[in-house]
Write a structure and sequence with these properties.
The complex is a heterodimer of chains A (about 170) and B (about 525). By secondary structure, chain A is an all-alpha fold. Chain A folds into two domains: about 80 residues, Orthogonal Bundle (Rna Polymerase Sigma Factor, Chain: A); about 70 residues, Winged helix-like DNA-binding domain superfamily/Winged helix DNA-binding domain (Arc Repressor Mutant, subunit A, Orthogonal Bundle), CATH 1.10.10. In chain A, α1 runs antiparallel to α2 and α1 crosses α3. Chain B has about 525 residues and is of the alpha+beta class. Chain B contains 16 helices and 19 strands. In chain B, the strands form four sheets. Chain B has an eight-stranded antiparallel sheet with strand order 7-8-9-10-14-13-12-11, covered by helices on one side. In chain B, β9 and β10 form a beta hairpin. In chain B, α3 packs antiparallel against α4 and α6 packs antiparallel against α7. The two termini of chain B are about 35 Å apart. The chains are: A mainly alpha (about 170), B alpha+beta (about 525). Chains A and B meet through β1, α1, α2, α3 and α5 of A and α1, α2, α3, α4 and α6 of B. β1 of chain A pairs antiparallel with β17 of chain B.
Chain lengths: ~170, ~525
């Protein structure tokens, strides 16, 4: 409810041009990077971020105005799963690094979370529950944003989060 | 098994965030994108050699702005917006990245030593190799750009905080605005009593766990569960029926799936949904569910939101499936002289597109969507979208429901500071540590069209003042909205909140209530 305006700016939705993309990158690169830091070997995070933004530019007309970051997270999840499934993809981070040293299946519950209690609790949850909880706790997603990132309805996302929180609570208590 | 444990677990999970403090080398990422996107091409048209863009590091704020005690989902929604709320309250940082810097650019920082330059050349060469092996588009552009990228190790360079100052056109006139708060006339409900009432209505039988703020029960037979959270006189009710969940079978087959806690059943029988119900049917089922609970929906407007991949994935999602056929030969100009249209350059057939289609094509389908979201908003609320209800409905019934109960009542009109005073308040730390956000503006992003590259900072000189760049920006517009303010204990109220903007794409949100309207008693 707007009940007062002084010198309204009247700026409309931006066109999907280079300036828009600059802004998209500036606004969200850190968030997307952190998404990967949470889920992948850190040395690979920047390459993966670049992939997400390359896809974002290619599919710029597909990005919902109101859910840019959830869309990026969803794309990031695809990039990550694609990366895990195709470990032969050569990225700069791999140059000079024996490929067998790369962690191809980096599960935060196993490798990244340092808090033993949290790791133990997460380990008792299903991969989907973990995914939902991490998007909620780390990316701060909820409601419609969570739904968009998961690619489900808002009700479905809320139910998934509710269930995941219930299971985390149970896992924490036992 | 109580809410404290729930919060502790979530809080510990948040605290375990492996990305705390992580910050990418934006320059390096932008290099990865050269030739594949027009990133940074704005400053000189085509593919410029020196770039800059505004940058808001919102992620640190995002985690913290998300109040663990919040049950309304709204706080997280703000976080998803990424630019809203405290990101602005924190001072409206704008930063630039000293991006690019190839051999055509004499203005950007160059390597400070031969050794560094050599290291970068090796890295750049390696990148070219990597690009040529796996990224066709990158191959085109990397080769065209000579493979010398310059200041690889520079990272991002902040232009410093932007301090808002009131523009001449801003009014200095005060006004008044309405405040709404929870109706406390009936006192705070007991969560256990509320839970038992609704659990009884739904036939849920199990051991109730409760504390002064919440209560929880899982049916020992079918796993349906009910949560009640109480904040003052406001309550939220969450219900889910795992058997009706469209992903029930998927969950049950996963490792760790089908676990409903010590008091819950060992397993449940899923009721696989059929086709998603029609909107009218979904709404009727939601209303019937509210009626079963004895929750009065008078004054609420229901609407159904069928899953629409167009909304979830954006326009053109279907074209993705044709994307491989749609890609064309590279533009002869693009990427060869550095001035071609970078948008055209992205039309280069790209191995990654093929991967994308192969791996994700099936994701762009709504065939598996079997539930409908139903939203109910109270039409006479000062902000209908605030404290609305949500349902997930399949043809089998309500799989999930969330109610926000309790009325917001008008507290009267309070004095509101002028737009000019609001600008001063942005710089007042007393108003920067309590979140005030405007739900109507949740997803609005700033847009900075006129960014110019900041000058490189001077070197530090012993004994001289240390560079600490600040800039001022005139606030040119002030909009007064109804916003939500959350206090430390979870108390929320609706009050006038200013949305201030300048002409450079910065904006700030700040509480509009005058100090005379506030009680600062600790």
């Amino acid at each position: 409810m707007v009940f007062g305006v002084t010198e309204g700016s009247g700026v409309g939705p931006p066109t999907r041009d280079a300036a828009w993309f600059d802004q998209l990158f500036a606004e969200h690169a850190v968030s997307v990077h952190r998404y990967f830091v949470r889920r992948a070997p850190r040395q690979e995070a920047e390459d993966l971020v670049a992939e997400v933004f390359a896809v974002a530019w290619r599919r710029r007309e597909s990005i919902p105005d109101d859910f840019v970051l959830p869309w990026l997270y969803k794309t990031a999840s695809y990039v990550l799963s694609n990366h895990r499934r195709k470990p032969t993809l050569t990225l700069l981070a791999d140059v000079g690094t024996p490929s067998d040293e790369r962690s191809r299946s980096m599960d935060p519950a196993d490798l990244i979370v340092e808090d033993d209690d949290v790791r133990t609790a997460l380990a008792r949850l299903s991969p989907r529950d973990r995914k939902v909880l991490m998007l909620h706790a780390w990316e701060g997603l909820d409601g419609e944003g969570l739904a968009k990132a998961l690619g489900v309805t808002r009700g479905g996302a809320a139910a998934a989060l509710s269930r995941a929180r219930s299971r985390l609570r149970e896992a924490w208590a036992t | 098994m109580n809410d404290y444990q729930d919060e502790e677990a979530l809080a510990r999970l948040r605290a375990a965030d492996p990305a705390t403090g992580a910050h990418p080398d934006l320059h390096r990422i932008s290099q990865r994108l050269r030739g594949r996107t027009p990133l940074g091409s704005q400053s000189a048209g085509g593919y410029a050699t020196s770039t800059g863009y505004s940058f808001s590091d919102t992620s640190e704020t995002a985690v913290r702005v998300n109040d663990p005690a919040s049950r309304t989902s709204r706080v997280g929604f703000v976080v998803a917006a990424s630019v809203a709320a405290l990101a602005f309250g924190g001072g409206g940082y704008v930063a630039g990245v000293a991006s690019s810097g190839d051999d055509r650019d004499g203005s950007t920082t160059v390597a400070s030593t031969d050794e560094e330059q050599e290291r970068r050349d090796v890295a750049d060469a390696a990148e070219d190799m990597a690009s040529s092996e796996d990224m066709a588009a990158s191959e085109e552009m990397a080769a065209s750009e000579g493979g010398v990228y310059g200041d690889d190790g520079m990272g991002g360079g902040y232009a410093g905080p932007v301090v808002p100052v009131a523009g001449e056109g801003l009014s200095t006139e005060r006004t008044t605005g309405p405040v709404f708060a929870a109706d406390d006339s009936d006192g705070a409900p007991d969560p256990g009593e509320v839970l038992e009432e609704y659990a009884g209505a739904l036939g849920i039988e199990g051991t109730v766990e409760s504390d002064p703020y919440s209560a929880y029960v899982t049916d020992t037979t079918d796993g349906r569960n009910l949560h009640v959270y109480v904040q003052g006189s406001m309550a939220s009710i969450d219900y889910s029926d795992p058997a009706l969940d469209p992903y029930c079978q998927e969950y049950m087959s996963e490792p760790g799936g089908g676990w409903f806690g010590e008091e819950g059943p060992e397993s449940i029988t899923c009721l696989p949904p059929g086709e998603a119900p029609e909107e009218g049917t979904a709404i009727a089922l939601a209303q019937e569910f509210a009626d079963t609970l004895g929750i009065d929906d008078a004054g609420y407007e229901f609407r159904a939101d069928n899953f629409d991949p167009m909304i979830a994935y954006g326009e053109g999602y279907e074209e993705l499936l044709d994307e491989s056929g749609a890609t064309s030969a590279p533009d002869a100009d693009a990427g060869t002289d550095g001035t071609g249209d970078a948008a055209e350059a992205t039309a280069v057939p790209d191995a990654m597109v093929q991967d994308y289609l192969e791996e994700w094509g099936s994701q762009f389908s709504n065939e598996d969507v079997r539930d409908v979201s139903v939203t109910a908003e109270r039409t006479d609320s000062p902000m209908p979208s605030y404290r609305s209800w949500y349902f997930g409905v399949t043809d089998q019934g309500v799989a999930y429901a969330s109610f926000q109960l309790g009325d917001l009542v008008p507290m009267g009109d309070y004095e509101v500071i002028s737009p000019a005073e609001a600008v001063d308040r942005v710089n007042d730390t007393r108003f920067q540590q309590i979140g005030a956000y405007i739900p109507d503006l949740e997803m609005e992003a700033t847009y900075d069209e006129d960014w110019t590259e900041p000058e490189p900072l001077p070197p530090l000189v012993a004994g001289e003042p240390i560079p600490y760049p600040l800039s001022e920006s005139q606030v040119t517009a002030a909009e007064l909205h109804s916003g939500v303010v959350s206090l430390w204990d979870g108390t929320e109220f609706v009050a006038p909140v200013y949305h201030l903007t300048d002409d450079r794409g910065n904006s700030w949100q700040v509480l509009g209530l005058a100090e005379e309207a506030l009680d600062f008693t600790p």
